[in-house]
Amino acid sequence: MKGKEWYQSDDVAEEYDAKRFSRGGRLIDRREKQAVLDALAPVDGKDVLEIACGTGRFTAMLAERGADIVGLDISSEMMEQGREKARRAGVADHIEFMRGDAARLPFPDDHFDSVFAMRFFHLADTPAKFLAEMARVSKEQVFFDTFNGRSLRVLYNWLLPMGSHLYASDEVERLLADAGLRLANAEHDFLLPYGFYRKIPNGVAGEFRGLDTAIRDTPVGDELASVSYWNARVK
Question: What domains are there in the chain, each with its CATH number?
């Protein structure tokens, strides 16, 4: 099962958070949330669009900090998990969940202050079209992550049931330029791929993360990182 079919399965939605963000996956969750907060801050009073909002990990977090946010996804089952998160956090009135296609966003030009997508571009079949649409509806900022081709992720990528597109830095830079975006900054992280961390206990994961971070901070760290966070501005 590939791409959209895998993602929209009922059992995937029900187990998504538990499989990815328990055990050593907890530190991945913390790092991703910090990356989003660092990029979008300050979020209080901002109008934000999240593409592929999934189970609402980031949607509820940003609403708690004062953002008015639209979460768009192709999976109704995923968004139901997000609605439950929003209700528990008491921020449902600051979030609108919409089922839609990221290649044809149902919003006018320059509608949002910031548009972002996490865990999306590795499944994107037409990344140029998606990025162009994100840029079109944003007044200021587009933020997203990619998985990288020069990394250990290559070793297990072919095992993934949904497939995964791996990017080179120059490919992302071309996509940004073609979408009319200017790269403000980029961060590269996780020499050890996500799948490794998810398989080990949280306490042990912290020790590996320390080693991972130490190597990342060397001259070869950016080249070997499995994940990149791209923070761009609308020209």
Answer: 3-234 (3.40.50.150)
